[in-house]
Amino acid sequence: MLRIARLTDYAAVLMAHLARSPERQVSAPQLAQELDLPAPTVAALLKRLARAGLVVGARGVGGGYSLARAARTISVADIIAAIEGPVALTECALGAGACELEAACATRGNWRLISRTVQVALEAVSLADLSAPMTRAIPVARVNVKRQAAPV
Questions:
Q1: Where are the chain's structural domains?
Q2: How confident is the model at residue 146 (pLDDT cuts 50, 70, 90)?
Q3: Which end is more exposed in the chain, N or C (fewer Cβ atoms within 10 Å of the end residue's Cβ)?
């Protein structure tokens, strides 16, 4: 089963929460309380999301965290990459030299295509989509991956 890590799920929940009130700055402890998540986990996630340029923090009275840019410009792929690193379903999808079986692997090109397809699908879903109530499906037409000769 393919599954994102629990911390990545929490990061998506946190980002969606911030996206619902983009004008608001919220402290890490307040976010932890509002989302019923452990405060140290929220603080650590906010640091990683800030390092990735997805949230910004302001110190002082009235300070806190908010989105670094509009929710429609942040993709689910951005959130996953901030917490887990690049999307790759297999080692060889990370790039040349990542797998010891690379030279003799007959499936490498196909795994790269599959990883790219998943990446494009995750890029097609914005934080705005993710944070909206599920009243409509995300248009599949936005996910458009053409089969190309994968580098071997």
A1: 6-142
A2: low
A3: N
**3-class DSSP state of 25:** coil
CB 68 within 8 Å of CB 53? yes
Answer whether 48's CB lies under 8 Å from 11's CB.
Answer: yes
* Fold classification of 6-142 (topology level): Arc Repressor Mutant, subunit A (1.10.10)
Per-residue DSSP letter, 99: -
Q: What is the DSSP letter of 127?
A: H
The predicted-structure confidence for 95-117, as pLDDT tens digits, reads as follows 666 677 777 778 777 888 888 88
pLDDT (tens digit, 9 = 90+) per residue, 132-145? 877 665 555 555 55
Question: Could you tell me the CA-to-CA distances from 25 to 22, 30, 69, 97, 131 in Å, in that order?
Answer: 8, 10, 13, 43, 17
